[in-house]
Amino acid sequence: MSKELPSSSIPGLRAIELTPDRESDLQRFFEANPAYFLAVNGQPASPNEAHEEIHGQVPTGWSFTKKWLIGYLDAQDSLVAMANVISDLLAPRVWHIGLFLVATSRHGNGDAQVLYRDLETWAASNGAHWLRLGVVQGNARAERFWKSLGYVQTRTREDVDMGALTNTLRVMFKPLAGGTLEQYLALVPRDRPELPNAH
C-alpha cells in the first residue's frame, strides 16, 4: 500500500495527512465552513467535531486497511478542503469516502470536482476498484455533486441520527475498474437494497 497522498491539480494547494497535531486547524476549518453541518446535522460543528473526525473508529467488526484523513493547504498554509477516506472497507478494493468538504469560498469554481478527481485517481492507483459513500437525502447540492461524478444509489438507510436531525441516507457506489452493481453487492452485501434497514 502506497503511503503517498493524493496530488493536487489546483496550483497552490498541497495535500497533507491530518494527524492529531492538526486538530485545531481542522476544527477552525469546520467552524469557518458551517454549511455542511447545518445541512446534515441541523446545527454547526460541535466543539469536538475535529477530535471525533481524527480519532473516530471504524465500526466494530468492519474490516479495513487504513483510515486516511487528508487536508489541503493553500499557499498560506490554511486548510481549504479535507477528505476522510477508508481503504478496503468491508471488502478488499472497496474504498469509502466518509467526508469530503471544500471551503464554501471555493464553491462554484470547479475546485471540488478537481480535488475529487485527484482523490479518485489516487485511490485507483492504490488498488481501489470501487468507491462508496453516503449522502443525506435532501442535501441537494451534495446529491447533484455525487450523481454528476458517476455515483449510483444502491439503497437507503432510514432514521439515521445525525446531530439534531434524523436523516435518510442514500448509499451510493461507483466502479473504477469496470464491473456491475451485482458484482459490487456480492462484495458488500450490506448495501443490497432489499435488506432491512441496517445501521
Notes on the structure:
With 199 residues, this protein is α+β, with helices and mostly antiparallel strands. The protein has a single domain, classed as Gcn5-related N-acetyltransferase (GNAT) (Aminopeptidase, 3-Layer(aba) Sandwich), CATH 3.40.630.30. The chain has six helices and seven strands; from the N terminus they run βαααβββαβαββα. A seven-stranded mixed sheet has the order 1-2-3-4-5-7-6, with helices on both faces. A hairpin with a 2-residue loop joins strand 6 and strand 7. Helix 1 crosses helix 3.
Describe the structure in brief.
This protein has helices at residues 23-32, 35-41, 49-55, 111-125, 140-148, 181-187, and strands at residues 14-17, 66-73, 79-87, 94-102, 130-136, 152-162, 165-175.
List descriptors.
single chain, Aminopeptidase, seven-stranded mixed beta sheet, 7 strands, GNAT family N-acetyltransferase, Acyl_CoA_acyltransferase, GNAT_dom
Give the SSE map.
Layout: E1 14-17, H1 23-32, H2 35-41, H3 49-55, E2 66-73, E3 79-87, E4 94-102, H4 111-125, E5 130-136, H5 140-148, E6 152-162, E7 165-175, H6 181-187
Parallel strand pairs: 4-5
Antiparallel strand pairs: 1-2, 2-3, 3-4, 5-7, 6-7
Total E-strand runs = 7
* Helix segment tally: 6
Give the strand content: 25-35%
The structural class is alpha+beta
| Tally of separate domains | 1
Mean pLDDT: 93
Low-confidence stretches: none
Overall spatial form: globular
Task: Give the % helix.
Answer: 25-40%
SSE topology string: EHHHEEEHEHEEH
Ends apart, CA distance between termini: 29 Å
CATH topology: Aminopeptidase
**Going across the major beta sheet, what is the strand order?**
1-2-3-4-5-7-6
**CATH class descriptor:** Alpha Beta
